[in-house]
Amino acid sequence: MIKIINAVLAVLAGVGGAMVLYFVLNFAVERLPGKWEHRIKPYVFIGPALLVIGVFLIYPAVQTFVYSFANDDSTEFVGFQNYTELLGSEAFRRTLLNTLLWIIIVPVVVVVMGMAVAVLADRLGARSEKTTKTIIFLPMAISGVGAAAIWGFIYASRPPTQDQIGLLNAVVVGLGFDPVAWLQIDTGKLNSLLLMVIMIWTQVGFAMVLLSAAIKSVPEETLEAARIDGANEVQTFFRVVVPQIWATVITVFITVLIGVMKVFDIVYTTTNGNFNTNVIAVQFFNELFTNGNNGYAGAIVIMLMIAIIPVMAYQVRHFKKQEAAS
Amino acid sequence: MKGRSTTKIAALSVAALFTAGCLSEGGDSTNESGGGDDTSDGSIEIFGAFGGGEGDAFNDSLEAFREESGIDIEYVSSPDFTNAIQARVRGNDAPDIAIFPQPGLLVDLAESGDLVALDDVIDLDGLKETLIPGMVESTETDEGSFGVPMRMAAKSIIWSPAPEFEEAGYTSPTTTEELLSLTDEIRDSGTAPWCIGIESGPATGWVVTDWLEEYVLRIGGEEFYNQWVRHEVPFNDPIVVEAAEQFAEIAFTDGNVLGGRGSIASSNFGTAGNGMFEDPPQCYLHRQANFITSGDFFPSEVTADLDSQVTVSQLPPADDAGPAMLLGGDWATMFDADNAEAVQVLEFLASDQFGGEWAGVGGWLSPHTTFDASQYPDETTRAIFQFAVDAETTGVDGSDQMPGEVGAGSFWRGMTSWVSGQQELEEVLDEIEGSWPED
Predict the structure, then answer these.
(1) Cys bridge to B173: A124, B178, B229, B304, which one at CB 3.0-4.6 A?
(2) How far is the alpha carbon of B408 from chain A, nearest alpha carbon, in Å?
(3) What DSSP designation does B220 have?
């Protein structure tokens, strides 16, 4: 109870303190001579925000960068050793390959499926469209861990003589075959693909909502014009609709892509990277918390950061272009 | 006019500074007074990993001591104990007493100087006389011993379904030879002899590490086992290879395990053995620690009537050696040697007087050979306790003692990869050896 009161007091005092701080700073700046007031005022207001971002985002990022060149308990510099050792290890290269597959497959499938649902639902009556979209959107509300638990019951496998609680194996056994330990089969990356299905399941709803809104905002006249010119439905879709919603497609693609690069919960809760399903974020967690190796963990995060930078840069440029256009 | 506004600014600035100062000081002072309360009003905080029913049983076991000593003991638990205790220690918010579910992390904290060596604080030699050997030793560093056992788990237990096991004419094996011939006999009768499952979410693999440790302890002996755990011999020593091959002979021979080798990694450790309780039994042998009878692992019809539903035996020793027992447990430790009340509580937790109430609930074994066994709820538990007391060779769970990157990392992972057939044994053992931290 005391802890709760303390927390409430801390929040009140913190917010109040910040208000008083701004009030006082503002008051002080307003006393300055006119020219100086205008020069300094913006910094007074933006300064604290920059400070917070600096302390909680930039400083840790720099620290991580530095630690990635140090040993496991960050007491001694080891140069590029962490990077060379990681990239030289077979297990880490397999992890990179898996992550790459996630990056290539998941965003594309999510966008394509989201688009398909959006287009098809658009052709339904108002009520069935709403119902369909709600159902497909529902998994969005489920956390990665929850989704992994649900799909765990679909992929579950038990010894042949016992009742199968897994949906897939119930079907397989019902057809007269032996149950399959789905998440252990890495032939053709089957187990990784099955885990990707979980991510896709949770993300399609998100893609659908944004793309559906974009499709609905495509002006009816452009579609009519295309149809009058003799274009069939497929041509209309790819030549008229898609170019007009392309900006949204890119936004959805990149948002999902960044999410996929960081994917952790699904893999951690289902296999913890065993059976050759490891991905980079799980490896980072294991290095930091299981192995206590700050150096490896730092190096992994820096590599991930470097890989994300081009994507972010592209998105920022894309946004700017869009803003300039509108 | 100008003068007045200057004073206003000054006053406001002071107020602001004061507020800012108050904030940080306010935080500090509440923390300090909180800490002060803990020691001054006779309140001791115990922090541990087990909650729910186990937490209640623990509290019940403390009730009599609370009244007698007048010490107010508060038990706080976190399922994320391993991370939480490190965060609290680093944040200068250590509890008075912490109960660790494995010695590895305790030793880590001891080596970084966060714990108090107990040698001069409580009578360790007196405790060792009645403790099962190895329990205190697993918390030793060069500086002394840092933990005392509060609970023991006996791992080398083979469970069989009763009365079907006897009705089929089988007898509990007392040597590895007999174990293997019993395995063959059951297999030839058309039933899989063993149920083995190692799936445990992110912790998948620990059951195989137990199996390997069982045979390292049996084949290599106690001294070799402890050297191996402390990495004084290479992880991939030939004896370890031999131990692994012994497990492989049991688990990988066609027809020996329900579902075959492929189902070992996908069957959950907690429910894998339930094939034994089907009619007719799907398997007759299941090796798991005594905890398997608490919680929701065995079917409730079985746990409600344990003595007539299961037969227990001990995983037999190698060749002509005496009986061996692999142990696990919980270890209590403290952070401040001057806290007299915490010492008192710790002494009680470590004594053979602690735990009668918990023993009655089940799922708890005392690490003391002198514990009054009549307090256990059934004959099965008494038999298991007796196995531990009578064991000539004992070893504390090795993966629990090894550094985290091995014990909860490459060892689990490597064994899983071997069992599921993704890597060969030699490759796995070499990789684990390579993953051992250098210092």
Answers:
(1) B178
(2) 7
(3) H
State the nearest Cα–Cα gap between A289 and chain B, in angstroms: 8
Q: Sort residue A189 into left (φ over 0), alpha (ψ -120 to 50) or beta.
A: left
Among all chains, which residue has been given the structure tokens 């023991």?
Answer: B152
CATH 1.10.3720.10 fits A81-145+194-325, yes or no: yes
Residues of chain B neighbouring A275 (CB-CB closer than 8 A): 265, 416-417, 420, 422
Q: Which of residues 21-40 of B touch A (CB under 8 A)?
A: 22-23, 26-27, 30, 34
Task: Please write the tens of the pLDDT for every residue from B105-161.
Answer: 899 889 888 899 999 999 999 999 999 998 999 999 999 999 999 999 999 999 999
Domain ranges of chain A: 2-67, 81-145+194-325
DSSP assignment string, A98-153: HHHHHHHHHHHHHHHHHHHHHHHHHTS-HHHHHHHHHHHHGGGGS-HHHHHHHHHH
**Does B157-326+397-435 carry CATH code 3.40.30.10?**
no
- Condensed to tens digits (0 to 9), the pLDDT of residues B271-285 reads 999 999 998 999 999
Strand spans (E) along B191-289: 286-287
Cβ contact A17–B23 (<8 Å): yes
What integer is the mean pLDDT of B84-101? 90
Q: What is the pLDDT of residue B439?
A: 62
Residue A265 has pLDDT above 80, yes or no: yes
| Intervals of CATH 3.40.190.10 along chain B | 43-153+328-377, 157-326+397-435
**How does DSSP classify residue A163?**
P
The closest of B99, B103, B57, B55 to B328, measured between CA atoms, is B103
- Asked if A122 has any chain B CB less than 8 Å from its own CB, the reply is no
All residues of chain A having their beta carbon less than 8 Å from the beta carbon of residue B203 are 272
Helix, strand, coil in percent for chain B, rounding step 5: 50, 15, 35
The yes/no answer to whether this complex scores an ipTM above 0.90 is no
> Do residue B262 and residue A184 have CB atoms under 8 angstroms apart?
yes
In the numeric block, which tokens belong to residue A182? Answer: 């789905």
Interface residue A148 vs chain B (CB under 8 A): no
Residue type for position B135? M
pLDDT of amino acid B200: 87
Tell me, what's the pLDDT at B19? Answer: 45
